[in-house]
């Protein structure tokens, strides 16, 4: 992390000098005031302000580095390519042993996704949503979830009893909600705390 100490007649002047030196905006840095400026008497004994300014770590780059370190330690090194849109950033993973990172029903991939989101958001002032994908698993999983949603909705409508699905990450819960949004016989909700939050499918209230 690049870090500098700067003095100025005031804290504001020191911050401006630091931003110019780092070629950064105020939003991209963290400022720590080490010493406030002090006015002297009749022009004598004054003391400048001293600040410490550091560049904030980029949350996406930090998340990529974290994921590469974890997968290396797992013995499954990956290449990561990024796709960004308004709602999320998708990490596309590729490698020789990628199936190990997907795991049974995507459980390993979901766990890595949860941890990667924690790391990224620990360094971001705005909430970031990161999706991990590998070998188009997310699309195949979405289709599987749609079938699960339809089958479960039919069972709920027939029995009149609600069903709680297994815990899922937010993108998978969204796929369930979207698949059933036009079904007037049932209603869906997400309940519980991450990473154990799950979708509940129950009969619609009259």
Automatic annotation (TrEMBL):
The keyword Cell division does not apply. One of its GO terms (biological process) is peptidoglycan biosynthetic process. One of its GO terms (molecular function) is RNA binding. InterPro entries: Jag_KH, Jag_N_dom_sf, KH_dom-like_a/b, KhpB, KhpB_N, R3H_dom, R3H_dom_sf, R3H_KhpB. It comes from the Bacteria. GO terms for cellular component: cytoplasm. It is found in: Cytoplasm. Keywords: Cell shape, Cell wall biogenesis/degradation, Chaperone, Cytoplasm, RNA-binding. Pfam families: Jag_N, KH_KhpA-B, R3H. Residues 139-205 form the R3H domain. Its main location: cytoplasm. HAMAP family: KhpB. Has an N-terminal Jag-N domain and 2 RNA-binding domains (KH and R3H). A probable RNA chaperone. Forms a complex with KhpA which binds to cellular RNA and controls its expression. Plays a role in peptidoglycan (PG) homeostasis and cell length regulation. Forms a complex with KhpA. Belongs to the KhpB RNA-binding protein family. This is RNA-binding protein KhpB. The gene is khpB.
């Amino acid at each position: 992390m690049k870090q500098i100490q700067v003095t100025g007649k005031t804290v504001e002047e020191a911050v401006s000098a630091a931003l110019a030196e780092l070629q950064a905006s105020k939003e991209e840095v963290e400022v720590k005031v080490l010493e406030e400026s002090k006015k002297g008497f009749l022009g004598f004994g004054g003391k400048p302000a001293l600040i410490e300014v550091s560049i904030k770590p980029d949350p996406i780059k930090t998340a990529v580095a974290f994921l590469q370190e974890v997968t290396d330690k797992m013995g499954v090194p990956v290449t990561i390519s990024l796709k960004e849109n308004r709602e999320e950033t998708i990490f596309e993973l590729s490698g020789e042993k990628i199936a190990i990172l997907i795991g049974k029903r995507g459980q390993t991939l979901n766990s890595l996704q949860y941890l990667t989101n924690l790391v990224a958001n620990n360094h971001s002032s705005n909430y970031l949503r990161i999706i991990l994908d590998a070998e188009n698993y997310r699309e195949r999983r979405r289709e599987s979830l749609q079938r699960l949603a339809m089958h479960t909705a039919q069972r709920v409508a027939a029995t009149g009893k609600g069903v709680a699905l297994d815990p899922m990450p937010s993108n998978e819960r969204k796929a369930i909600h979207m698949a059933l949004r036009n079904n007037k016989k049932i209603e869906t909700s997400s309940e519980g705390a991450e990473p154990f939050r799950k979708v509940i499918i129950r009969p619609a209230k009259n």
